[in-house]
Amino acid sequence: MISNRISFGFFLSILLLPAIAQGQQEPVVDYAKEVKPFFEKYCNGCHSAEALEAGIQTDHSDLENGFIDNRKNWLKVYDMMRFKAMPPEEAEQPGDAERDLVTFWLDKQLNSVDCEKVKNPGAVTIRRLNRLEYNNTIRDLFGIQFRPADDFPSDDVGEGFDNIGDVLTLSPLLMEKYLNAAEQVASSVILVQGVDNQPEKKIDLDTFSVRRGAKRDGALHFSTTGDSEGVFEVPFNGRYTLRINVGADQAGSELAKMSYQLDNQPLKTMSVSAMRDSPRDYDFEMQLSAGKHRLKLGFTNDFYNPDAKDPNRRDRNLFFYAATLVGPEELPLESLSKLQREVLAVEVSAGVEATKAASRILGPMINRAFRRTVEPAHVNAYANLVNVVMEQGESFARGMQVSLSSVLVSPRFLFRVEGNRNASTEVRDIDQFELASRLSYFLWSSTPDDRLLALAFRGELLKPRVLESEIERMLIDERADGLTEGFATQWLNLRNLDEVTPAPEFNFSDSLRQSMKIETKMFFGDVMRKNRSIMDFLDGRFTFVNEELASHYGISGVQGEEFQQVSLVDRPRYGVLTHGSILTITSQPNRTSPVMRGKWIMENILGTVPPDPPEDVPEIDEEKAKSGEVSFRKQLEVHRENAICASCHNHMDPLGFGFENYDAIGRFRTKDGAFNVDASGILPTGEQFKGTKELVQILSKREEAFARALTTRLLTFALGRGLEYYDRCAIDKIVEEIGRDNYRFQSLVKQIVFSDPFLKRRIDGEE
User: Fold this and answer.
1) Quick check: 326 and 200 in contact, CB under 8 A?
2) Which of 321, 332, 398, 405 could bond to 182 as cystine, CB 3.0-4.6 Å?
3) How many CB atoms within 10 Å of residue 749?
4) Do 518 and 539 meet the contact criterion of CB atoms below 8 Å apart?
5) What is the pTM of this model?
6) Per-residue DSSP letter, 331
7) Mind giving me the DSSP string for 669-713?
8) What was the pLDDT predicted at 198?
9) Kind and range of the H or E element at 635?
């Protein structure tokens, strides 16, 4: 049973408030005698309506609804209080007992919810598909391995995730990218037959490696002899034209010359008469087989004479502006998809018959693209575009391309729209099609499949047994990699690994970086698909390695590039906490960082975010760290002598020190330079540990704290919005229920899906 009043933050505050121990009776706080005088004495001098230092106010704690209307303000106050970061060091300090009491009171005001009275599932801002969702949706709608969203601007991040409706804006640049992507997808999905109207596919020169040249705005610039090399893909066997758009600065007695080479064929050269400001296309016809091909483009005859009479003829340079694959001249029908064959088989003239034929083919596609059953009149509007294009002399297939492009730039495709029906009520159940979308974008980061939409159409998806069965089916499907890519990489900060550059002495290779990422993704996927306990994230005694990563970890008997599961029994590795990926992103380039590692554990494992450090915090002396005069641990101890620094470091550092046996790229060690590694520590709650194993054992006993932290993050991702105080009721219920099933991963997912925030939405105030 869930009590009528639940304090969400209280459970996490156990880690930080030793005076209020778990299991003790909650203290009774007298606001007038204990809280108000506390703020007046220690806070209001700097944080009144007049002073408002750092934008924080504390002299309005007695206002009715003050903790709802000014929640962000009071959350900052609460964080500063529980970490003892305020008052500042030079000010008069409260005693621990009175600070803990007021902190407890703040926690109750901010996080206590009467679950019998508050029935608010929240409302999600209408949100567009992010880059991962767009790519996956295109893949699953049309069965093509084409990732147009890789060229989109990066998605903004809110609440730690890039699928939050409030931050997923739509810029003019992104709209232009959507238009281009829609045309490319349509031309790939629906092929137009005929020599005079062959399919065209742009080859992305941005992906080419360059030797003695430069890439600017998608073009290749050569001011001296050099070349560039890249890969493009051919869809079918056939006759193609490679079209290169190129121009030059001409100088000397001969024209600029370009070279081109395909795969292992002999290098060819040709003169380029086109000028830099008026480039032109050069076509090369060739027979190509389906698959990937390597193209090399180069500049072979550099010339420079600064004394030439004509200043425009002093320097010869070459510029490749675009490369396009045109063809094949004839489409091999046996290689086409069912849709492509169906479109090419239509033989109608412009008019009613063309609209009918287009409507018949487009109907199922539009239902899938818009993720619900679409009215015939709406389908006919898109089908009529085909007729309009045909009336201008184009083919039926070309008209279908235009129509499909229009579908793919519709708000009904680009955005996950949930209607505002039953506006007479404040809360409504989401409909079955909305549930299908919520479910698929939660677990797959992709569009609902035919089965989900069929169940929604028949009104069966909301049946508990059916919904539970669908969750199980979806979690073992390969498309559940979308949950790994969408959620796990952001929850664990794994995406940051691409931006980390360890110091040269570590010999950190890109292949090792990729192996580390794969290990963590495979570990998450294994917990998910095999329905393991989420506690395996902390103390799982297995992992996945290839030969390179196994060697990095000192594990013998693993050969080759393929990843395989290995046991970690009797090895100093535990869950994701000792993965090379996590240890590397929580290190400085040249050394470990107990602070970063401790902060990562607090935020990602315990769900507790420490406040930002003050601006005037002194830095660690890096030169002294390099010299080896004093151990880094000793330097941190000196750093913590500053009371303001100690307020947070006393919580973070012990957690980080527990992983000091792993260097800056995750290799196990017993020495740090000339010093023996000291991986012991004492937590604020009094537990002592010696080494990673004992610290992991302590963390693993905090099942409920970790389950609550992970539930909070996964529910945020599932809903696509930040959580509010009223979501505490759902979180507590989820944590209680999954505890009955040994905290198994699928139980966590099921409880989230069956929760009110997932199955309902608030209507009042919808955006």
Assistant:
1) yes
2) 405
3) 24
4) no
5) 0.80
6) -
7) -SEETTEE---EEE-TTS-EEESHHHHHHHHHT-HHHHHHHHHHH
8) 72
9) helix 632-639
- Per the structure block, which two tokens stand in for 731? 């979180």
Q: Nearest-CA neighbor of 457 among 435, 429, 441?
A: 435
What is the pLDDT confidence band of residue 643, given thresholds at 50, 70 and 90?
A: low
Q: Is the dihedral of CA 410, 413, 415, 416 positive or negative?
A: positive
Which parts of 83-130 fold into alpha helices (H)? Answer: 96-111
| Nearest-angstrom CA–CA distance, 705 and 689 | 19
Displacement of CA 67 from its chain's centroid (Å): 32
Check: CB of residue 244 under 8 Å from CB of residue 284: yes
User: How far is Cα 726 from Cα 119, in angstroms, rounded to an integer?
Assistant: 8
Question: What CA–CA distance (Å, rounded) separates 594 from 608?
Answer: 17
- Cα–Cα distance between 612 and 511 in angstroms, integer? 34
HSE value, Cβ hemisphere, 13 Å, CA-based, for 112? 10
**pLDDT, mean of residues 155-164:** 95
Cβ–Cβ < 8 Å for 552, 666? yes
Spatial contact of 153 and 128, defined as CB atoms under 8 Å apart: no
Res 572 pLDDT > 60: yes
- Tell which residue, 45, 314, 340, has the closest CA to residue 189: 340
What local confidence, expressed as pLDDT, does residue 199 receive? 75
Q: Measured between alpha carbons, how far is 599 from 582 in angstroms, rounded to an integer?
A: 12
Opening angle at CA 69, ends 64 and 71, nearest 5: 110
Structure tokens at 499: 């931006």
Contact 519, 584 (CB under 8 A): no
User: Alpha helix (H) ranges present in 444-579?
Assistant: 450-457, 464-476, 481-483, 489-491, 510-529, 536-539, 547-553
In which element (H, E) is residue 622 found?
helix 622-627
**Structure confidence at residue 9 (pLDDT):** 43
Bridge partners of 244, per DSSP, are: 282, 323
20: which DSSP letter? S
pLDDT at 425: 65
Q: Per-residue pLDDT for 124 more than 70?
A: yes
- The string of DSSP codes covering 62-97 is TSTTHHHHTHHHHHHHHHHHHTT--S-TTS----HH
The answer to whether 708 touches 731, Cβ cutoff 8 Å, is yes
Tell me the two tokens of residue 354. Answer: 């063309």
Element (H, E) at 214: strand 214-216
Taking the C-alpha atoms of residue 567 and residue 581, their distance in angstroms, rounded to an integer, is 18
For residue 648, the model assigns a pLDDT of 61
How far the first Cα of the chain sits from its last, in Å, is 35
* Per-residue tokens: 22: 């778990």
Give the span between the Cα atoms of 354 and 351, in whole angstroms: 5
Token pair belonging to 331: 């489409």
Spatial separation of the C-alpha atoms in residues 543 and 604, rounded to whole Å:
20
Report pLDDT for 311: 84
Q: Looking up tokens 């550092």, which residue turns up?
A: 653
C-alpha 299/C-alpha 258 separation (Å) is 5
CA dihedral 489, 494, 495, 498 (to 10 degrees): -150
Task: Specify the range with the lowest mean pLDDT, choosing from 338-342, 622-626, 704-708.
Answer: 622-626
Tokens 């060091």 belong to residue: 89
- Average pLDDT value for the chain: 88
What is the spatial distance between Cα 260 and Cα 267, in angstroms, rounded to a whole number? 6
How far apart CA 424 and CA 447 sit, in angstroms, is 30
pLDDT digits (tens, 9 = 90+) for 67-118: 777 777 888 887 777 767 777 767 888 888 888 888 888 888 877 777 877 7
Bridge partners of residue 275, in order along the sequence: 248, 278
Number of Cα atoms under 13 Å in the Cβ half of residue 206: 7
Give the model's confidence band at 22: pLDDT under 50 very low, under 70 low, under 90 confident, else very high. Answer: very low
Lowest mean pLDDT among 150-164, 234-248, 322-336: 322-336
